[in-house]
Design goal:
The chain has two helices and nine strands, in the order ββαβββαββββ. It is of the alpha+beta class. Strand 1 and strand 2 form a beta hairpin.
Length: 136
């Protein structure tokens, strides 16, 4: 067996090689841990409706324009479809017609307009209108 002199000590070459390999493995692992980072990643909805009418009042035979503001927080343009739904679908199918447009939504604040038309024969009613947007 061969020995190496280190200061006043004689160390086996086999032990010395094992110590160097172990130190190298620890150094490699420490380097990997320090150079590898884990960070949170998420994809968020870029569109929010920031303004819409708080109430709508109309009469049979009238049309209403709906002014809606959509904020796009992304740097990408989107195509959006607005879907209008009354909480009484039978009444909606019989007496109400909504606009059915697609809108180009650019980065920043976007004002869009929709409309609804009330049939002249519609009876009085008090309902709720839901506005949903679908991003394409």
């Amino acid at each position: 067996m061969r020995y190496v002199n280190i200061n006043r000590y004689q160390v086996s070459t086999t032990l010395l090689i094992a110590m160097v390999l172990a130190a190298s493995a620890v150094a490699a692992a420490a380097t990997y841990i320090w150079t590898s980072k884990t960070i949170p990643f998420s994809v968020e909805e870029p569109l929010t409706v920031t303004y819409y009418p708080s109430t709508l009042d109309t009469h049979p035979g009238e049309n209403i324009t709906l002014d809606i503001t959509i904020m796009n927080s992304a740097n990408v343009d989107y195509v959006v479809i607005l879907v209008f739904t009354l909480n009484d679908t039978t009444y909606q199918e019989s007496y109400i017609e909504f606009s059915n447009y697609t809108y180009d939504i650019h980065s920043g604040s976007n004002q869009v307009q929709g409309w609804l038309q009330v049939d002249k024969k519609s009876p009085p009613v008090s309902l709720e209108l839901t506005i949903e947007f679908h991003r394409e």
